[in-house]
Amino acid sequence: MESILDKPTPVKKPLPVGNSDWSAVRAGYWSADKTQLISGLLDRKATVALFTRPRRFGKTFAIRMLRTFFEKTPESNAHLFEGTRVWADPAHRAEQGKYPVISITFKDAKGADWAATKAFMATAIGKEFRRHRAAFSSPDADPDLAEQARTVAAEKADDEALANSLGMLAEILHAVHKERPVILIDEYDSPINWAATHGFGEEALQFFRNFLSGAMKDGEHCRLGVITGILRVAKEGVLSGLNNIKVYSVFEKDFSDCFGLTEDEVRALLTAYGHSEKMDEAKAWYDGYLFGGREIYNPWSLLNYVDDGFTPKPYWTNTSSNDLVADVLSRMTPKMRDSLADFFENGECLVPCPGDLGPYGTIQNEPQRIWPLLVHTGYLKVLAGPDDNDQAKLAFPNRELRRVFRNEVLGPMNRVPAVGDDLQDILASLTSGDPEKFRKSVEAFLVSSASYFDMAHEDFFHGLVLGLLAIGRECFEIKSNREEGDGRPDIAMRPRPGVTLPGVILEFKAPKVPPRASQKRIEALLAAAAREARDQIDEKRYAAEMEAAGLRVLKYGVAFLGKRVALAK
Predict the structure, then answer these.
(1) Which domains does the chain have, with CATH numbers?
(2) pLDDT at 166 over 90
(3) pTM for this structure?
């Protein structure tokens, strides 16, 4: 009689935890077939598609799958797609290995300032140019473009060439390969989100408007463009130059099963690793996301759960930074804090939650945007809506995210003084024209916040005063870095119709102080910086529009250094 010990034990494939190399995973790891993403893009004849999903939901994995499928390579990759969904259609098979591919990721493009961030982006772009450097020597390549391309490859391009580099490379590859290239941009919003929270958001936005539209706007040199990111923002922002883009966010039904794991895929995973009875536990911990109304599981957490011997715990927590979420949380009013705390206790809420977040530059300034921001970043799910009034019912996706919400949302928020608690005095001092009260109120806020904020950058002070929006927006239209007169004042507060308060213009400066400067020298530098800021308001006519409307305008030049504040009126 044959013993059960004589039967060979099935060899389980390794799990691709942290491995986003699609070719390697397909060849030797367990994976779910997501090639319907390719089929859907081909069937819809899309020109440019933006996919927004939370962190760790397979965006980079999808980009590498697309590159493997479309890219023309010396050795065919067709065998990797045999038996997959996309391979079932002969018309789709004919597209495999047919095109040059440009593939760039910006996930690590984060620097202390715009120059440093741009240098990181130049490195990512230059790496892809070097991968295609053979095309620069082709007789079919335009000599002038090829020469510019070599400077990009060497990371020596000027600002204009770098901003136009994607279109440049696309045009060269089109000429050389006689096929329009497929363009893949992964984590496009990573440097933009970083810039928006570190004081140089407008520079990043302008760069990406030119960078993306230069290659993808009309499809002349682009067979297909696919962009991934976390946030869906209004097209009039960074995507304003792309009139041919289709956005697929967590709210859309199309492609809803292409990122994350479906319930059938999770069941297959648990069965493959011998624990199909764990389905209820996996569902309680990692199910619950709704993409376009479809239930989706968190793939990062599921793979770690199985790899860790089926131990349920919050694997998704702190998998990457969410600077924009932290920045918005730091501006919460007491009322909004109470709303978030109540939501944690109740588990559901009906709140304003539009499908997109509006243009960059407004996200941080309106506390109510925390709700759609938490949906896009994966902390919450939409149970119903948004309706015609942009109201949606939100809830925690699962047990894991309830814990993550407590640690990553409520925890940091409660370590920051509430915006409304101290800034009432600041608002009153601004509108009453009392500069000394304003200075003392701001210094008091800095002292109470110093343990949380590292007051090293001007953008912190800018963000602090923007907290006024939470208190004063019913009385004022408040603009940050928007055009006024001959420039862009840091803060412009215009009274709303029927409000008798004066307008306010604020310009900020953070003076550079030499090491070991005396106290007297520091005070002099602060006073000079404040006066420079105040003079800039007049020189660039920031108040011209409000004054032309007959409004009285209070103008403040404000300088900050550590916990010290100087003001010129």
Answers:
(1) 22-248 (3.40.50), 263-307 (no CATH), 323-414 (1.10.10), 419-568 (no CATH)
(2) yes
(3) 0.71
